Amino acid sequence: MRSITIVFLAAPLCAGPLRPMSSAETCGQCHRAILDAWKGSAHARAMESPVFQDALDAAETVLGPGVRRTCMGCHAPLAVEGGDLQLDRKASWEGVTCDYCHSIREVNFDGGVPRPKLEFGAVKSGPVKHAVSGAHATAYSPVHESSRVCAPCHEYRNQKGFLVLSTFSEWQASRFGKQGKNCQSCHMYQVAGNVADVRVVRASDSRINLHKMPGGRSVQQLNQTIKAELTLTREGGKVRAVVGLANVAAGHYVPTGSPLRQLILEIQASSGPAVVFRDKRIYARSVAGSNGVPLAREHDSFLDSVKTLSDTRLAPDESRKEQFQFDLAPGVAADVTATLSYYYSPAARSESDRKMAFRSLRARIQ
């Protein structure tokens, strides 16, 4: 990662003292470009997400208020660390916020469970070497240049011992992990921008890590990750459609994260106004509780799952060919469309939030 030297002017315009567990708005008084990008991230919305709010309410109804600490440990870590489980402070609502990530000093894997070592105070840690700040002390942190910093929230084993989230270990087992290509290289790649606002800083290089952290809800990210092609052949009155799919860029399964997420391939053939064929394939992981019944609610899949029933997701570097066949009278033409969608959660409150199409392939058979 490129080394950037940061030198603040003698009288920085950053207002207000930095305190442990400061609001992101305080950090943004100097780090404006980073704050603006972060506000558009899933990290910033982690606590206020309606899907999470509904799952947390349902979990509390069943298991009581003690479950808040477990769930909010990743969705509102400053609330847990600061003992503010009722979310009275602004910083507690800010999801995975500045002062959490930049107070991480190391991540320990004792017992196979990744846990961050946190030191809240006037020293902010990060991947930039030789940084000098007039607003707070700085510390270069090698863990911020490694995927370990992501592991505490992207590798989760529930109290029943079941590995619900396995994104970090998926990455470890992939060629990306073996080659040392970290999570940040895809999700926090460098872009043009100022580490600190130009009013208060002179920098030798205007490059920053993207704090919007695009992932599965990014059309651009999905299109870079999944390669797809559609081919059609015909023999008399039968048409054969083959959709080739490949996970070419993700160092983890697609989809990853919550077991309720899905990658969906839908295919449709139309002759004029009539639909003559429709089918689909779903790529997902199904988990079950101790009774063996598939779990279909977010809080159940996180807290009650004990085993995987099936896993049809696309592994890193995996390619597949999905084959479909349908009848079509000789001499009749048809238009075939194959659509790829990312399905986020059944708990999302609108269809557009639940399912997002990101790629359509079209071909015509004569």
Describe the structure.
- By secondary structure, the protein is an alpha+beta fold.
- The chain folds into 2 domains: 6-209; 219-285 and 312-365, Immunoglobulin-like (Sandwich), CATH 2.60.40.10.
- 22% of the residues lie in helices and 32% in strands.
- The chain is built from 13 helices and 19 strands.
- It has helices at 24-28, 32-39, 50-63, 67-75, 77-81, 98-101, 151-154, 167-173, 175-179, 184-187, 219-225, 298-303, 351-354, and strands spanning 6-8, 104-108, 115-118, 123-126, 131-132, 137-140, 156-157, 163-165, 190-192, 201-203, 207-209, 226-235, 238-247, 262-271, 274-288, 307-311, 319-327, 334-343, 355-365.
- Strands 16-15-14-18-19 form a 5-stranded antiparallel beta sheet. A 3-stranded mixed beta sheet has the order 5-1-10, with no helix packed on it. Strands 12-13-17 form a 3-stranded antiparallel beta sheet.
- The radius of gyration is 24 Å and the shape is globular.
- Mean pLDDT is 92; it is low at 1-13.
